[in-house]
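Loading example: each entry is read as two labelled lines plus one structure line.
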Amino acid sequence: MPLRILVGIQNASPGEVTFALAADWATRFQGSIVGVGIIDESVGAPASMLTGGAASMGNIAMADAEALRSKAEKSVAQALGELETLCRNAGVEYRNVTKAGDPEEVIGAEAQACDVVLLGQAAPPDPEFGVPARTILESTLRNSPRPVVVVPRHVQGGQGVEMSGIRLFVFGGIAQMDEEPETPLAEFMMAIAGPIASVLISIVALGFYTLGADSAG
Amino acid sequence: MTPVMAVLLYLTWINAVLAVFNMIPAFPLDGGRVLRSILWKLKGNLRWATRIATYAGTAFAVFLMVMGILSLFPGQFIGGM
């Protein structure tokens, strides 16, 4: 029987790590991803929580006025569309549902149909929308009818450090780090890698030069 | 010397020089980062390690400036810094 995973990713954009894990599990256990968009009526706050029979993603948005409800519906639709694209690219089966109601209740109800709940660590609250996204995570942790796995916003493989880019010059370059290395060992390995590469290139070049000089002489 | 051989010799030198220069323990050069990581490991204090490594970096920068000024007087000291 396939594992059914409910996935919540709050404020969509930092949810790639959670989605990647959900897609991996869905692939491994022949699960499928169901996007559930939630229009949050409890605080007059439309939210989109893309949830799933097998996996789900969320994007919490909020608005007080009726005018903002259509905006919320649009953001839910957009988040569902993004999820669909992600699923298609990952080769994972996908369908979606849109529900109106209290996010906690909708998530709770969805979780009933799953084996495990996968939640992305809360992003900092979006100032544009009043509701702090983390309350959804907290309430899910408190009330979930199923085991909950919280996925960090950055998953680091080994000594991994997030990089935003690298600027290359003719000799060497500068790495643009989003964060500092977290351990002395990570720092040491990163720092020593450059000079080691230089020494290796130097040795290889000298080796070819010597070979060439021998064969010429 | 053929062009290929010239490039190989050039690559040998430039990378050797680059490795040595980068390993000077002056932050933010790689050597300075290595120094910082070692100090950090020894004392478990990243701020302190960074301070020491940047002092070394500053000292090295001042050294380079002094050598640059001295090189304005040809024949007196080391030329071509």
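The longest strand of chain A covers residues 33-40.
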